[in-house]
Design a protein that fits this description.
Keywords: FAD, Flavoprotein, Oxidoreductase, Transit peptide
Order of helices and strands: HHHHEEHHHEEEEEEEHEEHHHH
Radius of gyration: 21 Å
Number of strands: 11
Strand order of the largest sheet: 4-5-9-8
EC number: 1.3.8.6
Largest sheet: 4 strands, antiparallel
Shape: globular
CATH architecture of the largest domain: Up-down Bundle
Protein name: Glutaryl-CoA dehydrogenase
Distance between the termini: 54 Å
CATH superfamily of the largest domain: Butyryl-CoA Dehydrogenase, subunit A, domain 3
CATH class of the largest domain: Mainly Alpha
Cofactor: FAD
Bound molecules: 3-thiaglutaryl-CoA, flavin-adenine dinucleotide
Oligomer: single chain
Strand content: 5-15%
Pfam families: Acyl-CoA_dh_1, Acyl-CoA_dh_M, Acyl-CoA_dh_N
Length: 394
């Protein structure tokens, strides 16, 4: 009886019963409610975020690893495994959940005032309110310290925000944006503060970014802040500097470490199924040595990625996971997932370039995943700094 790649590695035994049950629930939801629609969503470049979010809320995955305020308070590993199942469907769907739970909700949960938490978190956990996270700008992606978005206080004590954020997932459909802006409270990026911005505030707009060739089942936009006036209570009270947004990126990057395994697993399982059914000359493609060599090599990388994800999950659940360890996982698992997707596509040949199979959709999506949440080069530099003690960013 053939085994799946991860059965061969025996990784199931490393997952606790409760985490497995959560994973299975998410997998069943994805199979029934998400996967059947993905080719159409991807082709149309549209995804019904408004309808999907309440369903994801009922499933319990929005902010699932946070405690209180309507969140499930699961283990970090369970959150990772949920990301794996969501990304086995499509990176855009995992992104929806990452941005909502790990970026927008986590920012409010970790750094918000009690009033901000009460106002937004229960509705966001239920998928009734959609959040986005504005850090990147047109001229400042990898180097967010240089951001030009400004928040100044006027005589009445209100904040006034001006600037432009770019490539912001869910911005055009969001009810609330967590926006990071430079203040004049301190120099060298240390004056950066976070703001909770209801998207119906006058001066806020979020035009859609069109013609993406990757992550098409995800809404991406700009955020334009034209003298957006907010009460003093809109700012996160305590946190200053880049550690505010970067603490949120740690959460989302952790989800991607697992998510990338899901995308790669889906590609590999599709390629194995295809190879078993495709007859070349007089026998299945799966019976040829070249095919088996490809499948064996990809299985090695998939299994190693899974082991790395589970190890990082264990460290996070123990409370000892460090940012540079998350970089190891994000760099390796996304890089290997892209390599696996491309190799699987060769097994399907012409059939592999269509949306009838998920492989090229995953490969295209993974180009975005390689770039967002820190490019592969940024993660190499973070690891390099951890190894040498020298920063090579500047
Ligand atoms: P650096 O001088 O090293 O640090 C500035 C301050 O931040 C602290 N810090 C961290 N805190 C928490 N977690 C981390 N991972 C942290 N890394 C650094 C640091 O201790 C310092 O604190 P303080 O109190 O001394 O001021 O910063 P740098 O300016 O040299 O920047 C280096 C680096 C690598 C951190 C930064 O350039 C980087 O990570 N760039 C990548 C930007 C990025 O990932 N953007 C993602 C935007 S969101 C997104 O892409 C969403 S995609 C949708 C989805 O997720 O699905
Ligand atoms: P740049 O920073 O301009 O990088 C260009 C090249 O230079 C890259 O190869 C990079 O690795 C390299 N480079 C950078 N620094 C160095 C260095 N020091 N040494 C050597 N090489 C270097 N952002 C958000 O804030 N919120 C979101 O919700 C969000 N969603 C996104 C969704 C999608 C689909 C995409 C594609 C992006 C999204 N982003 C979001 C933005 C994403 O985080 C940035 O694209 C990413 O951080 C890289 O920034 P950049 O594109 O400006 O590239």
């Amino acid at each position: 009886m053939p085994q799946t790649p991860l059965e061969l590695f025996g990784t199931e035994a490393l997952i606790g019963e409760e985490d497995r049950a959560i994973r299975d629930t998410v997998r069943a939801f994805v199979e029934k409610e998400v996967k059947p629609h993905l080719a159409d969503w991807f082709e149309a470049g549209e995804v019904p975020v408004r309808e999907l979010a309440p369903e994801l809320g009922r499933l319990g995955v929005l902010g699932m690893h946070l405690e209180g305020y309507g969140c499930a308070g699961t283990s970090a590993t369970a959150y990772g495994l949920a990301c794996m199942e969501l990304e086995a469907a499509d990176s855009g769907i995992r992104s929806l959940v990452s941005v909502q739970g790990s970026l927008a909700m986590f920012a409010i949960w970790k750094w918000g005032s009690e009033e901000q938490k009460q106002e937004w978190l229960p509705r966001m956990a239920a998928g009734e309110a959609i959040g986005c996270f504005g850090l990147t700008e047109p001229d400042f992606g990898s180097n967010p310290a240089g951001m030009r978005t400004r928040a100044r206080r006027d005589a009445s004590g209100d904040w006034v925000l001006s600037g432009t954020k770019m490539w912001i997932t869910n911005a055009p459909v969001a009810d609330v944006a967590v926006v990071w802006a430079q203040t004049d409270e301190a120099a060298d990026g240390k004056g950066i503060r976070g703001f909770v911005v209801p998207t119906d505030t006058p001066g806020f707009s979020a035009p859609v970014i069109k013609q993406k060739l990757s992550l098409r089942a995800s809404v991406t936009g700009e955020i334009v802040l034209d003298e957006v006036r907010l009460p003093a209570s809109a700012a996160f009270p305590e946190v200053r500097g880049l550690k505010g947004p970067l603490s949120c990126l740690n959460e989302a990057r952790f989800g991607i470490v697992f998510g990338a395994v899901g995308a790669a697993r889906d590609c590999l399982e599709s390629a194995i199924a295809y190879a078993a059914s495709r007859e070349i000359y007089d026998k299945p493609l799966a019976g040829y040595q070249i095919t088996q060599t490809k499948l064996a090599d990809m299985t090695l990388e998939l299994g190693k990625s899974m082991l790395l994800a589970l190890q990082l999950g264990r460290l996070k659940d123990e409370g000892t996971l460090r940012p540079e360890q998350i970089s190891l996982g994000k760099l390796n698992n996304v890089r290997e997932a892209i390599a696996i997707a491309r190799e699987c596509r060769t097994i399907l040949a012409a059939a592999g370039v269509t949306l009838e199979y998920p492989i090229m959709r995953h490969a295209n999506n993974l180009e975005s995943v390689l770039t967002y949440e820190g490019t592969s080069e940024v993660h190499q530099l973070i690891i390099g700094q951890a190894l040498t003690g020298e920063s090579a960013f500047r």
